[in-house]
TrEMBL record:
One of its GO terms (biological process) is negative regulation of DNA-templated transcription. SUPFAM superfamilies: GAF domain-like, Winged helix' DNA-binding domain. Residues 4-65 form the HTH iclR-type domain. PANTHER family: HELIX-TURN-HELIX TRANSCRIPTIONAL REGULATOR, ICLR FAMILY, HTH-TYPE TRANSCRIPTIONAL REPRESSOR ALLR. Gene3D superfamilies: 3.30.450.40, Winged helix-like DNA-binding domain superfamily/Winged helix DNA-binding domain. Keywords: DNA-binding, Transcription, Transcription regulation. InterPro entries: GAF-like_dom_sf, HTH_MetabolicPath_Reg, Tscrpt_reg_IclR_C, Tscrpt_reg_IclR_N, WH-like_DNA-bd_sf, WH_DNA-bd_sf. Pfam families: HTH_IclR, IclR_C. Residues 66-250 form the IclR-ED domain. This is IclR family transcriptional regulator.
């Protein structure tokens, strides 16, 4: 087994254990289609590195403690300031909707902070670190609209425009026209393009040079968003984005 293949298989083993909330060697072997001896060897490597623990009496493997340190380090590197986290929380309360802060990170559009509650829950996949489907999310559209056309095209070439729902915009020309409208209005909407039954809206956050570096966003059941509600949400988003942008300018 080559070096790259070994790394890929080892990480695949880790992902299976994480997704299942723990798994036996046989379960991992069956999911990945790997020989049981190979699977067990990879599991033992991860145990030795503290990425997994082996619960011998239960004959299963679970996530190890080193992953917690990695998670803490990731949160630190993404680095959402306390005042921005508080602002996202305020937006959640004012808008009566789950609220998000997303940023550029390398070549990705990443959810960096979420404020929600039992009454106004987040859309299930949108946890910290979510970085998929920019073409179908409101904050993704804001960041795509803020890119130069060649940069946006390069991003979409790399990530594609998968049809997540029947209303997802997948045609590149149609998406380009939509992003031009987002840029003109300064607000992005998606209605059931990412998850059926939900609508999302977002407004850009700018750095001191005026470049788009992030977005504040909300998600809410689509059936609740009439014209009046949309206007209220846009107002709340613009105010929130202006505050965050001002903090970035003043440090």
């Amino acid at each position: 087994m080559g070096g790259v293949a070994t790394v890929e298989r080892t990480l695949a083993v880790l992902e299976v254990v994480a997704e299942r909330g723990g798994a036996s060697a046989r379960e991992v072997s069956d999911v990945l289609g790997l020989p049981l001896p190979t699977t067990y060897r990879l599991l033992q490597v991860l145990v030795g590195l503290d990425y997994l623990v082996h619960l011998r009496t239960e004959k299963r493997f679970e996530l190890g403690y080193k992953l917690d340190r990695l998670g803490v380090s990731l949160h630190r590197q993404v680095g959402v300031p306390a005042n921005v986290r508080a602002e996202v929380g305020r937006l959640h309360e004012v808008a009566g909707a789950a609220a998000y802060f997303a940023v550029y990170r390398g070549a990705d559009v990443v959810v960096a902070h979420v404020a929600d509650s039992a009454r106004f829950p987040r859309i299930t996949p949108m946890n910290f670190g979510f970085h998929e489907a920019a073409h179908a999310t409101a904050f993704g559209k804001i960041l795509l609209a803020g890119m130069a056309a060649p940069e946006a095209a390069e991003y979409l070439d790399a990530h594609g425009t998968a049809p997540l729902t029947p209303t997802t915009i997948t045609d590149r020309d149609e998406l380009a026209a939509h992003l031009a409208e987002v840029s003109r209005r300064g607000v992005a909407w998606e209605r059931e393009e990412f998850v059926p039954g939900f609508a999302c809206a977002a407004v850009a956050v700018h750095d001191p040079a005026g470049s788009v570096v992030g977005a504040v966003a909300i998600s809410t059941p689509d059936g609740t968003v009439d014209r009046r509600r949309a206007t209220e949400l846009e107002k709340a988003l613009r105010e929130s984005a202006n505050r965050v942008s001002r903090w970035l300018r003043t440090g």
